[in-house]
Write a sequence for this structure.
């Protein structure tokens, strides 16, 4: 973080990614990917610079992280 073109989410434990959501700084959902069941996920990111949030739901917990997008 910060990112320019894509974002990679990788878990370093025994959890598996089930769903990932990308939200703008107002909380509106921009993109959601479901039924993943993976340990590593890569995706393109919004092209407009700014602050976003990434919500990662695993088989054991849910995490929300801030994502900074630069030019």
């Amino acid at each position: 973080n910060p990112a320019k073109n894509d974002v990679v989410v990788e878990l370093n434990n025994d959890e598996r990614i089930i769903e990932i959501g990308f939200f703008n700084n107002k909380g509106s959902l921009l993109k959601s990917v479901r039924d993943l069941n993976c340990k590593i996920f890569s995706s393109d990111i919004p092209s407009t610079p700014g602050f976003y949030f990434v919500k990662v739901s695993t088989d054991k917990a849910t995490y929300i992280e801030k994502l900074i997008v630069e030019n």
Summary: Strands lie at 6-10, 17-24, 29-33, 40-44, 50-58, 62-69. The first strand starts at residue 6 and ends at 10. The radius of gyration is 12 Å.
